[in-house]
Amino acid sequence: MECNISGKCCEKNERSTHRTEKEKKELTKRLNIIEGQVRGINQMISNDRYCDDVLIQIAAANNALKSLSYHILESHLKTCVAHDVQMGNLDILEEVMLLIKKLQ
Fewer Cβ neighbours under 10 Å: the N or C end of the chain? Predict the structure, then answer.
C-alpha cells in the first residue's frame, strides 16, 4: 500500500502511520500529562496518601489513557481504515473489530 492522499498510512514491509508534526505534538502533550499523573500516583504512594485519593488519581490516569486511545482509534478509522476499504481491502474490517475488542 502506498501513502494515501493525506499521507497518513503506509505499508512497506511494516506498517506505520505518518503523523503531522502538529499531531505528534498533540499526542506527546497528552502522553506527558498522563506520565505526570502516573508519577504523581507514585509520589502519593511514597507519601502514604489515603487510599481514596490514590484510587481517584488512578481512575483519572486510566480515563486519560482511554481518551487518548479513542482519539487514535478515531484517526485510524478516518484515514487508514477508510483508505483500505476504498482500495477494496475489506479484511481490514475484521482487524478493526479485533482491535476494538482489545480496547475494551
Answer: C
Alpha carbon distance 16, 70 (integer Å): 18
Give the integer Cα–Cα distance in Å for 90 and 85: 6
Helix (H, G, I), strand (E, B) or coil at 16: strand
pLDDT tens column, 46-77: 999 999 999 999 999 999 999 999 999 999 99
Rounded to the nearest 10°, the torsion over CA 5, 96, 94, 81 is -10
pTM of the model: 0.80
Q: By CB neighbour count within 10 A (0-12 exposed, 13-18 middle, 19+ buried), where does 52 fall?
A: exposed
3-state secondary structure of 10: strand
3-state secondary structure of 61: helix
